Amino acid sequence: MATVGVKGIRMAIIDPTTGLVIAGEKGLTENGIFDARGKVAKGVTQANITGLAPAVAKIWGNDILQDQSIGKAQPSVAANFNDLPHDILEKALGHESDGKGGYLDNSNGVLPHLAMDIITSDLAGNDIHYAFYDGNLTAGDKTIGTSNENETRDTDNLTYNPVAGLNGHVYKTFYAAEEGFTDDALVKEFFPTSAATTSAPKSE
After folding, report:
1. Is 145 exposed, middle or buried (0-12, 13-18, 19+ CB in 10 A)?
2. For 87, which DSSP code?
3. From CA 84, how far away is CA 86, in angstroms rounded?
4. Which InterPro entries match (predicted)?
5. What distance in Å separates the CA atoms of residue 27 and residue 115, rounded to the nearest whole number?
6. Phi and psi for 92 in degrees, rounded to 5?
């Protein structure tokens, strides 16, 4: 189905063992969820989701195509924020604050785990959510150039690489127009704050 625009992105640092949102000082916000909708972060310009389809390997024998091996989807998200708050960015990348305005680069290579919800809409304006249980965020290159009669801005280009959640699935698509959809249920599943709301390991 067609989608229209991008309404924003929600994300939170989670504990990879429990799947629970980390809130407060070690999280992205007081309740843990950074909600970049409306005018927050001056908006999201794109969330390019690739790799939603599984890889297909063709199996040949006797000079003819005999079978196909179906792999698993390996999604990746290229997201761009116009002006992501620096403290949110540094925490999401796992950089360490020195308490004096400086952030040490992530030298140990252990990235924070984040859940992410990308929000677009259908042709009628109903929300569509591409929600990912777990993954890591990495930064793109910075191109710093001179301004002249016009500003030269370099926005926040980030790549999100999802991994499977506790239930073995990588993502879920939600359609707000469908009967039974509630945003509260989405938040409880993807941004849980208690063990009772996490997705228990299971296969569907």
Report:
1. exposed
2. H
3. 6
4. Phage_TTP
5. 12
6. -65, -30
DSSP code string of 118-132: EEEE-TTS-EEEEEE
Q: Which residues contact 45 (CB under 8 A, 6 or more apart)?
A: 6, 80, 81, 82, 155
Residue with tokens 């924070």: 112
Residue 171 DSSP SS3: strand
| 111: its two tokens | 């990235």
Length of the chain: 204
Q: What are phi and psi of 178, to 5 degrees?
A: -75, 140
Q: Which tokens belong to 143?
A: 């191109």
Model pLDDT for residues 133-152, shown as the tens digit of each residue: 999 999 988 889 999 999 99
Task: Measure CA of the first residue to CA of the last residue in the chain; give whole Å.
Answer: 24
Question: Could you read off the pLDDT of 84-127 as tens digits, one per residue?
Answer: 999 999 999 999 999 999 999 988 888 999 999 999 999 999 99
Q: Which two tokens stand for residue 183?
A: 């945003």
Which pLDDT score is estimated for 111? 95
